Amino acid sequence: MSSNRINKFARAAAFLLLGAGGSVEAQTGEKSAIMNVLSSYEAALNASNAAAVMPLYADDAVFMPPNSQPAVGAAAVRQAYDAVFNAIKLNLKFTVAEVVQLAPEWAFARTNSAGTVTINAAGAKSAEANQELFIFKKGADGAWKIARYSFSTTNPPGRQQ
Amino acid sequence: MSSNRINKFARAAAFLLLGAGGSVEAQTGEKSAIMNVLSSYEAALNASNAAAVMPLYADDAVFMPPNSQPAVGAAAVRQAYDAVFNAIKLNLKFTVAEVVQLAPEWAFARTNSAGTVTINAAGAKSAEANQELFIFKKGADGAWKIARYSFSTTNPPGRQQ
User: Which of A5, A98, A106 to mutate to test the interface with B (most CBs of B within 10 A)?
Assistant: First the structure.
């Protein structure tokens, strides 16, 4: 075993001893790090800033926006955000329902978001409310990144946006 | 350590030795088990059978259907499916894009589904297409169960259902 591999194993074993047999609410440090990614995502989204969104995603991430096929991989994710930001301006506040660490390098977060959406072409503003499910992966550099992300509106039918 | 705890640790350690440091495509046995849950889910959904859906969910699961607040816990999940099956009749085929095991007791699956939806009240049938993100947890009995589930339509805007 390389020392890198030994370190990984020791870290994983420590994690399992702490939370053997099931999920553990993410430990404070990891949870903070993931909450920070969510805050950065909220800020990038509200700024319609695709360049600021991208470092929050893993290279092999899958973004699953409604009314679209899943965007698989960074290039497709970037294209999807460019399309979103071209069409609408969001002003959302995210509320974190839970952050759960599943393994040393995997976690998920469930959130709700609420605020407004403005259609850029028409200028019409309406209420927006969503529920989000993020799967996070910790990269080799120790940074948590969005690996998979699915969301949908919580508005009643007929008020999709 | 109890022997149960030792077994859990040994199983977890074996998993880590197989796939230390990242995700592994779910091993054949686990992947088959998860694919079986997805097949059972497809069958229960197409039969509008909430009683058959429920054993596929963990007790503390969260179901996140569009146009609704998240259903948290088995009772709320059941209520949500009752409402869905009361309103519509689905005839969907699921295609599995990926099944990834994250830890001995955690995995996720990403799927697409396509087929038809019939509005029970009106009898109107239309094309339905969705993308799904499932998080699975392995219970104490060794059965993989749906722990979190978010999906959305892939139909273009204006053809939500």
Answer: A106
* ipTM surpassing 0.95: no
Report yes or no: B108 at the A interface, CB cutoff 8 Å. Answer: yes
> Which residue from A95, A8, A74, A83 is spatially nearest to A48, judged by alpha carbons?
A83
- 8 Å CB contact of A157 and B160: yes
pTM across the whole model: 0.85
pLDDT tens digits along B61-108: 999 999 999 999 999 999 999 999 999 999 999 999 999 999 999 999
> In the A/B pair of chains, how many CB contacts fall below 8 A?
121
Q: Which residue has 């998080």 as its token pair?
A: B135
